[in-house]
Amino acid sequence: MAQADRTDLPAGARGYDGFDGVIGRTSSVSRPWWPEEPTAPAGAPNIVVILVDDMGYSDISPFGAEIDTPNIDRLARNGFRLSNYHTTPVCSPARAALLTGLNPHRAGYGSVANSDPGFPGLRLELADDVLTLPEILRAGGYATYAVGKWHLVRDANMGPGRDRSSWPVQRGFDSYYGSLEGLNSFFYPNQLIADNTVVDVAEYPDDYYVTDDLTDRAISQITALRAQDPTKPFFLYFAHIAMHGPHQVKEADLAKYRGRYGQGWDEVRRQRFQRQIENGLFDPDTPMAERNTEPGFDAPLWDDLEPTEQERFQRYQEVYAAMVDSVDQSVGRVVDTLEQLGELDNTIIVFTSDNGGTAEGGPVGTRSYFSQFVHGPVPPDWERDVPHDQDLIGSAALGVHYPRGWGQASNTPFRFYKGQTFAGGVRVPFVVSWPNGLPRAADDTGVRRQFSYVTDLVPTLLELAGVDTPDHRHGRPAQERDGVSIADVLRDRDAQSPHTEQYAEFGGHRGYYRDGWKLVSLHRDPASVDDPAWELYDVTTDPAETTDLAARHPDKVAELAAAWDAAAWRNTVFPLYDRPADQLRRRPAEARLSDPIRILAGTPTLERYRSSRLIAYRDFVVEAELEGWTADDEGVIVAHGDQQGGYLLYVESAAVHLVYNAYGRVRRESGRLPDGATALCLRASATPSVRWNLTVEAVCDGEASTIVKLDDQVQLVGMAPWTGISVGLDARGPVDPELRQRRGVFRFGPALRAVTYRPGPTRVGVDVRRGLDEAAERSAD
Questions:
Q1: Is-contact 755 623, C-beta < 8 A?
Q2: What was the pLDDT predicted at 10?
Q3: What are the backbone dihedrals phi and psi of residue 522, each rounded to the nearest 5 degrees, phi first?
Q4: Residue-averaged pLDDT of the chain
Q5: Which of 100, 248, 341, 563 has its CA 20 to 30 A from that of 658?
Q6: Are 151 and 180 in contact (CB under 8 A)?
Q7: Which residues sit opposite 599 in a β-bridge?
Q8: How far is the CA of 294 from the CAs of 287, 373, 524, 578, in angstroms?
Q9: Residues 6+ apart with CB under 8 A from 252
Q10: DSSP string computed for 499-542
C-alpha cells in the first residue's frame, strides 16, 4: 500500500500544521515525527551565579576583609577577581540588568519594585520583549533554577490572582524557591514562594534560618537533576536575602565575631585598604577616600564617639560579619556538592553583590528596622531607633541595621553608599571561577582591572557556554542587549575592556563613565534635579574619587554631560523627579486593595502589601464573627505582623487580650469577654500625628460594650506590619513572643467564623505631610 502524502490532506483537516512526518488514514501508512528538544553544546559548563544583597566592595577576604570567607577565597584562588566591576546603585535595577543584559531603565527598573509611577523607565515589571538569561539558557538545553530574593515583581502583584508574568517561573526558571520581596526576616520570613505558589507555613522550626533553607533547596535542585539526568548542564541563580537588613544571624555564627570590632570603623577601613593594595587590587600610591562628611551621609570619627556608642555600634558589625560568614558557608556547601558530583571544574561560578554597602541604618544604627525604614509621611519626632537590650542585637527578637560608619567601611576605599552613583554605591566585588574553561596561568594574579558593568554578565556567560540568543520572545522581536562580553578580558590580562562608556542614574543622582573618566553628581535639591553639580574624576589613577577635576577640565565635563543626556534619552531615564512624591506614586487601580474584605478563619496568611493597604495611615475596623462561643473557646482571633511590629487579638481564660507591638515596644491590655458574645470589634482611630487610638468592643444581643482601650499608639506604616494578616492563629513571625512561647500559634476553634476588615479614611496632618519629600528622598535605601 502506498504511503499517504502528508501534504495531501482532505479539506477541513485541522491540527497538522507544523507536523514534519507523514499522515495517512492509519498508522501503518503514516510516519511519526517528534520535534527536537533543545540540546546544550557538548561539554557545556554548569553556571552558578551567587548574588549577595547590599554587600560592599571590601566585605570578603579576597577584597580586603578580615571576615573569614575561605570558600569564596577558594574560588578567587582558582579564578579571577574583577577589581573594576560596576553595578547599579540599588537592587531591582541591578537584578534586571544582571538577568537581561539591558541597561536598567530600558529593562523598566529605574528604581526598586515598590511603586508604579507610570513611566517607561519605572515600569517595574519585565516587558514581554525582554529575554532573560534563564530563558536563553533553557532554549539552549540547560535546566534552570533560582533560589532567594527576586524583587522584580511590583509588590502589588505578589498576591494570589495577580499578574505573574514577571515572576521567576514565567521568566525562564524551571523551579523557584524564595522571597519575591526586597528583604525579609531571616528567622520568620513573611512569605516564601515555591514555583508559583505561596508556601502555606504557619510556624517555622525552632532552628530555622533562611540562608540555610535556601541553600538546602539549591542543593536539592542540583542533586535531583543529577539523579534524573547525569549530563544536562544547569544554571543556578542563587540570590541571597543577606546582606539586606534587618540583620539577624544564628548565635553560633555570631559567637565567632564577638569582640572583634572594638577598634572601630576607621581602623577597619585602614586595614582593609592596606590588604587591597597587598592583593594587587590597587597600586600602592592609590589614595583612599576620606570619611564621608557631607550632611546626611557623614560618618564621625570612631574615637569621637561615646564609649556607650562604641559598645553598641561594634555589636552591629559583629552581626554583619557573622552574616557574611554565613553566606560563605552557603557557598561552601554548594561548592562541596559540585565537587562530590565531579562537576566543580566544569562549572562557571560567579560571586558578586547587587550594589554597595548601605547607609540605611542612619547615623546611629537601629534596633527597630521597620521604624527606621518608613519612607512615607511621619512626624518630626518619629522614633527610628527604639531602644532595646543590646544583647539582643542580631537575634530574632530585633530587626537591626548598622550605623552608616560601617557602611563606609564596607565600601572601602570608596565614597558614599548604596543609592548614590559614586563608587561606594556602584563598585562591588566580583569573583569568577571556571577551572576547565578559564584556567589561570601560574604567573597570573587573577586580578582584572579593566572596566566592566553588570549588563556584561549575560553576554559573557553565553559566550563562555557557547549558547546562542533567540531573536524573538513569545513571537515578538527581542530587545537588543546593552552589555558586551568580557570573556577576552578574563582570558588575557592585557586585553582592552570592550565596555568603554556607561551611564548611571538613580533618584536624581547621575554618573557617566568613558575611557577612564567619570562624571558624577550628588542629588540634593528636588527643584534642581535637572541642574546637576557635576564632579569629574580620573578613575584610572583615582578610583576612590578623591580629587575633583571639574574646574580644570570644563570641556571634558561638557562632553560627558552631553553624553549622559543622550544616553538618558536612549535608555528611558527621563523624566527625572522634581517632586519626590511622584516617584512613590501608585497606579489608580491599586485603590481597590483597600476595599473591605471578609476573611474566613483558617485562610492562608494574607500577603503583606495587601494587608497594609487595609490599615496604613487610616481608621480601620476589624469585626470578628463568633458562633456559639463559650468560655472554653480560646485562641487567636486575628494577628497582623511579627516581632518587628504588629497587633494581635486573642481570647484566653474568657478574657480578650489586645497586644500592640510598636516596632518592639509591646503593650498588652485585657478585658473580660461577656457570656453569649457573638462578635468582637477592634476599632483603630487614626490621628493626624500618625498614631492610633484602639478600642475592643464585645457584642452581645446586638449591644456593643467597650472592654479594652489603648490610646495614642504609634502607627505601623511603611513596610510594617511585615507579616500579613492571619485569622484564627498567629502565623509565621509572632507578634507576641511570650504568647508564642506559651501557646504556639494558638489556633482558635470552630467558634470563630470569619473576620472582616473595614478600612476608613486616611488621616495625616499638615505637619506630617511636610515631611513627605524628605521621606521620599530616603527611598534610595
A1: yes
A2: 87
A3: -105, 120
A4: 95
A5: 248
A6: yes
A7: 755
A8: 19, 21, 11, 21
A9: none
A10: --EEEEEETTEEEEEETTEEEEE----GGGTTS--EEEEETTT-
Helix (H, G, I), strand (E, B) or coil at 209: coil
Q: Which amino acid belongs to residue 577?
A: Y
SS3 779: helix
DSSP secondary structure of 258-285: TTTTTT-HHHHHHHHHHHHHHTTSS-TT
Residue pair 191/198 in contact by the 8 Å Cβ criterion? yes
CA 264, CA 306: separation in Å to the nearest integer?
12
**C-beta of residue 755 within 8 angstroms of C-beta of residue 678:** no
* Residue 586 Cα to chain centre, angstroms: 20
State percent of the chain over pLDDT 90.
Answer: 91
Specify the pairing of strand 80-82 against strand 430-433.
antiparallel
Instruction: Give me Rg for the CA atoms of the chain.
Output: 28
- Per-residue pLDDT of 276-335, as tens digits, reads 999 999 999 999 999 999 999 999 999 999 999 999 999 999 999 999 999 999 999 999
- High-pLDDT (> 70) share of the chain, %: 97
- For the chain, give the longest Cα–Cα distance: 99
Dihedral-angle region of residue 228 (phi above 0 means left; psi in -120 to 50 means alpha; beta otherwise): alpha
Contact between 578 and 527 (Cβ < 8 Å): yes
3-state helix, strand, coil in the chain (%, to 5): 30, 20, 50
Please, are residues 545 and 76 in contact by the beta-carbon 8 Å criterion?
A: no
Let me know: does 310 contact 264? Beta carbons within 8 Å: yes
Q: Which DSSP state fits 289?
A: P
DSSP class per residue in 581-608: HHHT---GGGGGGGS-EEEETTPPPPPH
Query: Are 351 and 77 within 8 A, CB to CB?
Result: no
The residue type of 402 is Y
Express each pLDDT in 114-126 by its tens digit: 999 999 999 999 9
Decide: 692 and 592 in contact? Cβ < 8 Å. Answer: no
* Residues involved in catalysis: 91, 151
Could you tell me the three cell numbers for 506?
A: 538613580
